Amino acid sequence: MDLKEAMLVRHSVRSFLDKRIEGEEKEKLEAFIRSCNSESGLHMQLITEEPEAFSSLLAHYGSFRNVRNYIAVAGRDTPDLDEKCGYFGEKAVLYATTLGLDTCWVALSFSRKKTRCSLEEGEKLALVIAIGYGADKGKMHKSKSLDSVIRCEGNPPLWFTKGAKAALLAPTAMNQQKFRFTLSGDDMVKAEALFGPYSAIDLGIVKYHFEIGAGRENFHWA
Do residues 133 and 19 make contact, with C-beta atoms less than 8 angstroms apart? Predict the structure, then answer.
């Protein structure tokens, strides 16, 4: 499975099987997370066989079941932290999908106090990503129209529409899809987070999807 296929088949999953993440899958995922941390300066951590973070009423109200593994998405508390967490967190999510794992971004429905991640001075836990083998494969979310999330003069090039369509496949908080891509000239793209909760994290997520769909060689970020 490549990343384009992973975008199509990956859906949010809230209920998981009693199956450990171990062996080659765990080793590959941990190595990939270390690579993302090295590239981004984040401090993402894979936490396994730890049910306490999802043992509260918050998790119950969020309809989470049997979450024993999660990726803690954390880093230095800088102005661009949320966008970086979204971008590199989604890199980890789609890579996990290629390994046969299921995921769900979680900003509220877990206990931050019980989350067993290590934070260094000046670091902040932004959110977590529930991960494991899903009891089901989730459902495709409803999407806005392509025209509602793009701006350009004249007919958009194919790579631009492919990028925007890939972005519409991305998970966003409450499926709000509060983002917009504007094409200037032949290859300059501006990505904007519109007003909404966690929209900066969502912007990082959709920018990664846009890059996969459009092909990074076809454009430059404004």
Answer: yes
Question: In 3D, which of 219, 179, 220, 213 has the Cα closest to residue 83?
Answer: 179
Per-residue pLDDT of the chain (222 residues; tens, 9 = 90+): 999 999 999 999 999 999 999 999 999 999 999 999 999 999 999 999 999 999 988 887 889 999 999 999 999 999 999 999 999 999 999 999 999 999 999 999 999 999 999 999 999 999 999 999 999 999 888 999 999 999 999 999 999 999 999 999 999 999 999 999 999 999 999 999 999 999 999 999 999 999 999 999 999 999
DSSP 163: H
User: Quick one: 198 exposed, middle or buried, by C-beta within 10 A (0-12, 13-18, 19+)?
Assistant: buried
**pTM assigned to the model:** 0.96
Question: Quick one: tokens of 39?
Answer: 């590239």
Tokens standing for residue 86: 């979204």
Pair 85, 208: CB distance under 8 Å = no
